[in-house]
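Study this protein:
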Amino acid sequence: MPRTDATSAFIAALEQKILRPALFVQAAFASTTLYLWTGRGSVSWNGHTWLGVGTLGSVSTIEEGSDVQARGIVLTMTGIDATLLTDVMTEMQQGLPVTVYLGLFDATPSLIANPVISFQGRMDQPTLDVDGSTATIQIACESRLMDLNTPAERRYTNDDQQRDYPNDRGFEFVNSIQELTIYWGRTSSSTNNL
């Protein structure tokens, strides 16, 4: 997919012989939003301080294709203290947004403006694997294309119309005409329009 939001510096870095990539993950939780990246230390970008998770965090392969298909990813965090699992599970809510950016660094290393969005979706249920005193959490993230599979629970009724437009009377008589017989161009007692 063409990246129209990529800067000329970013495109030039992609064409270099040595590539220094990093992934930046912005994940919303119940009371806070986490800003993490796949390196070590912290990086300031986009008005936030992104904390490095190093080898403790990973992102599964981000796939794209020529057909319209919802493709998800899995975010993994290992080495979490098992005593913190209760806090993690209370903060986790299904359906909150997650965005993964691809960033590139130059030789100094400084972040090249600006990382591009590689994945945008919503978090699904986490999977836990507790091994003694540490735990591994995997969070499946679904593409926003999954919303296309959700049926619209809307109807052509006055009540439904009032949810969005409280003063609109366009559907006011829909219920009363459901079983109504309408005689167009004739009366109810006439036969064959005579």
